[in-house]
Write the structure tokens for this entry.
Amino acid sequence: MSTKSFLHNIPVFAPLPDTIKVKLEEIILTKAVTKGEVLFRETESAESLYFINEGKVKLTKSSADGKEIVLNIRQKDEIFAEVALFSPEETTYPATATVLEGGSVSYIRNEDLEMMLLEHPELGMPIFRIMAERLRISQTTLRDVALYGKLSALAATLVRLTEDYGIKKEDGIYIDIKLTHEDLGNFFGATRESVTRMMNQLKKQKILSKQQGYLVIHDLEELKTYMHDA
């Protein structure tokens, strides 16, 4: 796939004039990645903005006791590591990025992109919108855990996963990424045992099931009622 073709697929870059896309092509680097590969760690100097051409990438942080917390999973045509833009040179990545599904990623060094933003401010608005939306989601997750409990946070996580990775079929919405109960708990700081109990509760009410390793949401509207009722 050429640089120009995948730029058209990425929401941040798609609306831009071809003249700007041509300039972006000159500063974009691309590489193949394999499952399990670490693209960067949260303690490393933040140097680049990344976006995914093929595959999936997991973003995680380590808690004080060493527990992994999943911040999000990014997929094809999404950007990540954008928060380091216009930050001081000593800024580190806010998370560790690990490849969940092999493919390829492209990246632009922050210093090159910042120069582009100064020359073409219209490039900045879509990036800032994404940053604002992701901040809102993070704050909502913290609110759900603090105010409504972990069942509400689990429900909100599942709803968000259906929005990001859901595939509609006759019997429900398939979440197109395999997640263990431990993986789900890592999104909002719950133990595997706690998630298992909550998932069993939702399964008994026929809200969801698991088929061939994939979660299937059968009653999305009922699941949403748990988001603030727990």
The mean pLDDT is 85. Helices lie at 3-7, 18-27, 110-119, 124-148, 150-165, 181-188, 192-204, 220-225. The CA atoms of residues 48 and 183 lie 27 Å apart. The chain has two domains: 3-143, 149-225.
